[in-house]
Design brief:
heterodimer; A: 113 residues; mainly beta; six-stranded mixed sheet; five-stranded antiparallel sheet; globular; B: 112 residues; seven-stranded mixed sheet; 52% strand
């Protein structure tokens, strides 16, 4: 079983729809990252959060530490939001070292006009 | 230019050859990371560095060597490339282990 699971794997939406991508993790974490990978391959960090909720424009990320679950929401989706969205758990005390990110396999989002 | 850059962006090499992938960042971030991205696996950590001359293994270090003589550079060397090392390699940097990571554009490596 993967330590970080994302759902769905693929998502197709119509422009304007509200989108939710889910991430569950089984390890102890200090923070959780949401990343966006564009069709060209570049990776951009969207959020890093350890509790509660963060909002940036039309993007909202939430995390529930007790339930080990995070969600990424996109309001009023647009074709330019089409990308792969990746969640990554920053694992606590990885082998005595620090900074180990465990990545989900990503959710491929396609927003149709 | 400011930011994090990788070179080359694309590389084709033969099995058994030595290959070095370069990563350079201009933010003076203390931490730097190397990841590989493969279909079905997502991103996996190869090596990371907490500072110049300090490196440590990640999840998949076998077949790779790193060095970090200067804060801004973190080269990744495949000493004897194998087909299983065909992948897209991403370098990243951050201010610390619990800070946001910034990713380079990636290097697509094909080993024939």
């Amino acid at each position: 079983k993967n330590e970080v699971e994302q759902s769905p794997q693929n998502l197709t939406a119509q422009e304007g729809e509200f989108i939710t991508i889910n991430c569950s993790y089984s390890v102890g974490i200090s923070a959780l990252h949401w990343l966006q990978q564009h069709p060209g391959g570049g990776i951009v960090s969207l959020f890093m959060l350890s509790s509660g909720k963060k909002k940036h424009g039309r993007l909202i990320a939430t995390i529930n530490i007790q339930e080990k679950h995070s969600s990424l929401h996109i309001t009023a989706s647009h074709p330019r939001d089409s990308a792969v969205y990746i969640c990554a758990a920053l694992q606590l005390n990885y082998g005595g070292s620090q900074g180990n990110l465990i990545f989900g396999k990503g959710t491929k989002l396609s927003v149709k006009p | 230019d400011a930011g994090i850059t990788q070179s080359p962006r694309y590389k084709i090499t033969e099995t058994g050859r030595q290959v070095t992938l370069m990563c350079h960042q201009t933010w003076s971030h203390s931490y730097m990371f190397w990841y590989r991205q493969d279909l079905g696996h997502g991103l996996r950590l190869i090596y990371y560095s907490a500072a110049a001359d300090i490196t440590d293994k990640g999840e998949v270090p076998d077949g790779y060597v790193v060095s970090r003589s200067k804060t801004e550079n973190f080269p990744l060397t495949l000493e004897s490339a194998t087909r299983s090392q065909t992948s897209v390699y991403f370098c990243a940097s951050s201010d610390g282990p619990y800070y946001e990571q910034y990713f380079g554009p990636g290097t697509r490596l094909t080993v024939t």
